Amino acid sequence: MSTATTGAGTTEVVDLRTRIGEVELSNPVMTASGTAGHGAELAAYMDLSALGAVVVKSVSLEPWVGNPAPRLLPLPATAGMLNSVGLQNPGVSAWLSSELPALSRTGARVVASIWGFTADHFRKAAAAIARARPTSVVAVEANISCPNIEDRRQMFAHSREGVREAVSAAADGLEGVLPLWVKLSPNVTDLAELAGEAVAAGGVALTLVNTVMGMAIDPATGDFRLGGGGGGLSGPAIHPVAVRAVYECRAALPETPMIGVGGVSTGEDAAELIAAGADAVQVGTATFADPRAPARVLSELTDWCRDHGVSAIDELKGRAHVRH
After folding, report:
1. Annotated catalytic residue: which of 96, 146, 174, 204?
2. What confidence tier does 106 reach under pLDDT thresholds 50, 70, 90?
């Protein structure tokens, strides 16, 4: 439950409770992987236990150094940013022993994000978390929108075969210990088809969407503005992309839990994704400008629901599909 104060000073209760499959959340607002650190970095700015969940930065089977600097390129505020961090992380074992304990002590519900260069890497990273059985971790999100060394031109999320291989491997590694969420890429021609493949391969829920591929070049020199060359566009510019992705995947998969992510910086942005069919949302790039953004979005979403006569979040879910 969450409360909102009316102009008359009275307080109305808005029921923001939601479910992602078997996972019950007190509200639908989470952090997005890659923007909240590996542990309790944001605890100084908000009560992490008050969020629906904290999705941590993606970890791999072994430590990975990521891409060369510069890694971030701020864009006009209405756009967002380009990033080419390259999934730097300490490896799943080090994360479990060194980063997760501090985050767990905050009382946060944690979603572990994993990635790998091969399907077997996904299997082994998932298995490491399943063996550890950390009580604070409520789900594992497979970030399959990352390079595959078996075909560097592709990402797992860009082909039916790649989706099946990576998701099946992650599901095998988890052995049913934790539910598997699958984070998909918008850089495809038929996202709904690939979403169906992810569910068929063992994904319990879908996270929609990852960044849009982009690039910035200094015209004076011809040099890339990011150390890794190309990068991922995130922030307000991709919000309409995320809304359409959620809407179309919800139409194709009406029973599949979905988490909307992409350019959420206000409560209304969150409400729009939920109306498109999301069961929950993630706040990402906005956190770089305002570390309190996830908590602020939650507060604004509560106020938005009160202002629009929504007493429970379920009343808002998929509203666009009822209208059209």
Report:
1. 146
2. very high
